[in-house]
Amino acid sequence: MYMADTQRQQGPSTWRIVLAAILDFLTAFFVLGYLIASIFGGRTEEGFNLQGGAALLMMALIVAYFVVFNKFLGGTIWKRILRAQR
Predict the structure, then answer these.
(1) What is the rounded CA–CA span in Å between residue 52 and residue 75?
(2) pTM of whole model > 0.85?
């Protein structure tokens, strides 16, 4: 019982938190970037190319992804997969 309580208080490993943050950013970047490029016409053969307002919108949505998932949904997608929630 003591061992389980100690482990629960320590929280997840640092590497899980860092890896989850990197994977969340990459996932949000590519998924949101592709969706916004599809809507605003920024798709290319290599992927997508966003400039101006479309790029600003994508960055705002990436920030919103982290805020909404962490604050209201109990953690981002990769935090849940890697069990990196505090």
Answers:
(1) 30
(2) no
- The per-residue b/e assignment along 44-56, b for 16 or more CB within 10 angstroms, e otherwise, is eeeebebeeebbe
Residues in the chain: 86
pLDDT (tens digit per residue) in 25-82: 999 999 999 999 999 999 999 999 999 999 999 999 999 999 999 999 999 999 999 9
Tokens coding 8: 């629960």
The answer to whether 75 and 85 have CB atoms below 8 angstroms apart is yes
What digits encode the pLDDT tens for the residues 48-58?
A: 999 999 999 99
Q: How far apart are CA 84 and CA 74, in angstroms?
A: 11
Give the contacts of 58 (CB within 8 A, at least 6 positions apart).
29, 32, 33, 36, 50
* CA atoms 35, 22, 69, 59: torsion sign: negative
